[in-house]
Structures are given as structure tokens and as C-alpha cells.
Amino acid sequence: MRLILTVASLAFAFYAFFDCARSPQEDVRKLPKWAWLLIIFLFSSVGAIFWFLIGKPRRNPGPGRGGRGRIIPPDDDPDFLRKL
Asked: Per the confidence metrics, is the pTM higher than 0.90?
């Protein structure tokens, strides 16, 4: 049982480390990316938990914050109609 918890904790820390490494620098929150990588490396599971709660970029920013927003059909899209 103890071995399973240790392996799960290490797997979680590795996942958080590589997730942080693959995230774009400008999307990382609160601290620079290198600081998050260092925290995850030094404090493994606790650092990984903090990464997912505080530092990880939001998945769906929504309209007005870089998201695609809702899809507009071509006949309702003024930009498309101007090009005709």
C-alpha cells in the first residue's frame, strides 16, 4: 500500500512538472514558469498541488479573454458580408 501511494505521488509530481514545462510562459499565473518548475521539483506533491490550484493557465478563457466565443453563421457575420 505504501509503495502504491509513493508511486502515485511521484506520478502526480511528474505530470505537474511536464504540464508546467509545456505551458506557454505568458499564460502561467502568479509566478514565472521557471519558479513553478523549481517549486514542483523541490516540493514534489505539494508543489504539484499548488501548480494545479494557483499557477496552471485556465483552459477555457471565454469570450473577451482570448477565447473563440460563439460561432456566428456566415449570413449573420458582418465581416463576412462586407467581403462579398
From this structure: no
Could you list the residue range(s) of the whole structural domain that residue 41 is in? 1-58
Distance separating alpha carbons of residues 38 and 42, to the nearest angstrom? 6
**Three-class secondary structure assignment of 11-76:** HHHHHHHHHHHHCCHHHCCCCCHHHHHHHHHHHHHHHHHHHHHHHCCCCCCCCCCCCCCCCCCHHH
**Would 70 be classed as within a structural domain?**
no
Tell me, yes or no, whether 15 lies in a domain.
yes
Specify if 74 maps to a domain.
Answer: no
User: For 35-71, what is each residue's pLDDT tens digit?
Assistant: 999 999 999 899 999 999 998 887 765 555 555 567 7
How do residues 6-37 score in pLDDT, each as one tens digit?
999 999 999 999 999 999 988 888 999 999 99
Q: How many domains does the chain contain in total?
A: 1
Query: How far is residue 63's CA from residue 76's CA, in Å, rounded to a whole number?
Result: 18
